[in-house]
# Entry
Amino acid sequence: MLWVGGMFVLGLIAGSVLNCVIWRLPVMMARQTSAAEGSLHDDFPPRFNLFVPRSCCPQCRHTIAFYDNIPLLSWLWLRGRCRHCGGCIGWRYPLTELMSALCTAWIALGWPPGLDALMLALCCWLLIALLSIDLEHMLLPDVLTLSLLWLGLLANLHGAFVPLQDAVLGAVAGWLTLWGVYQAFLLLTRREGLGYGDFKLLAALGAWCGWQQLPLLLLSASLLGIVLMLVLRMTGRIARGEAFAFGPCLALAGWWVITQPAAVWF
# Structure
């Protein structure tokens, strides 16, 4: 149980880092686009990346002390509010940390200590970041999807999860499948039904689980997407014809399919 507990703590720490990535990466991309267009006007410091400046409150921009940045515990201690301005700290922050910790502990239950388990944990962390960013910004950044793709091929270089041949074919089939759906939908409706980020995400998932698992993955993601869309329409969150983020459905289905082969080893 020491292995599982250690991975749970590691997942909490990773979740704190993910919160930084989820908030900063879209801002960095937007600033890069604005700078290229010559229209960069915001109140962020000139040097803004994943490491600089230090973590701060999104509302008052006051630097957060280390004791207020302890994963999950600080949020509970502060009751979800900034110590300085009293502004609300969203539920996304503790939920991301908790989800990361639980996913990492789940991996520890199925894989013994070693590099394979750590690489699979990194896969799950990337999926959590992609899920959250797509939900909030309808965006699947290339730096995350392509990192997930190359990591999957590297992990299967010696057949850690599937044979390398299946991983390569899975990446190709994943891309071509959604690209074909995109082209067919565009031809029939003259509208874009998917984003290019979805192609890359499915290609990355195919690199992890192999081409054989892609039908199950796509079926699971599609059913999940239908259920979520119905719920969102019934609750008035989206209107008919409004764009819907499919990336989170792919990420959740991919995580489930990839981690299923695990067998409890103790």
User: Anything to note?
Assistant: The first helix runs from residue 2 to 37. The two ends are 9 Å apart (CA to CA). The chain has a mean pLDDT of 88.
